[in-house]
Fold this protein.
Amino acid sequence: MRTPADKKKFVREKFSSISKHYDLVNSLVSFRIDRYWRWVTTRELRLFPEGPVLDLCAGTLPLSLELTRQAPQRQVMAVDFCEDMLRAGIDDLPNDNRRQRIMPVCGDGEEIPARDNSFWGCTVAFGVRNLSRPAKGLAEMCRVLKPGGKLLILEFSRPTNFLVRPLYFFYLNKVLPAVAGLVSGDKEAYDYLASSIAKFPEPENFLNMMRQAGFARVRRRTLTFGIASIYVGVK
Ligand SMILES: C[S@@+](CC[C@H](N)C(=O)[O-])C[C@H]1O[C@@H](n2cnc3c(N)ncnc32)[C@H](O)[C@@H]1O
């Protein structure tokens, strides 16, 4: 992918192609541990149980659902640029009042369709890695958060433990694309997953990018041997 525009087109097409199988494949290949990661991420927002929250790169809405499950008054704007992912999520929304509290919006995370200072929280689960211009995306997240609002980025990271690391990379590069490719019919999408994890900045560099975008009190919280991380910042 030579340009940011190429990456954007590729990412949108890949998510569109796997949208109907996305949740099933996630549960299969992560042994459902991704649910625990989203739960922990959402708990970081417990001081803001009522204010509006932006769930960026919301996909099939799993994090939006967790955000509204943990706080019965919370309203969530769920933004994603892949309409098919949002539609798959909307079709599976439970028949309770969370349907009214989640507002799906088809839009670009690098040009967030919201006013300055709108949200108390912004979450991005497994989405930042996919942005074609992550610095622009981070600046936009900062713009739409209220002063004092919290950014939570849940993203895959590379474990450093000498026992876990080789096993994890074998699983990520060989087993996962084969299984996920079979179920979803698009192995290339899951080869891309492995390569995008490999290319993601080192944690300290990513925290610096968050600082440059305007966030303070930035920190990283590792999950499950460092296979995933939550990056936290405050506007
Ligand atoms: C791996 S999925 C994550 C979905 C969901 N957050 C979750 O926890 O499973 C990444 C999502 O990011 C979206 N995405 C990637 N780049 C985007 C952008 N520039 N603007 C909006 N959404 C984007 C994709 O369409 C995809 O739905």
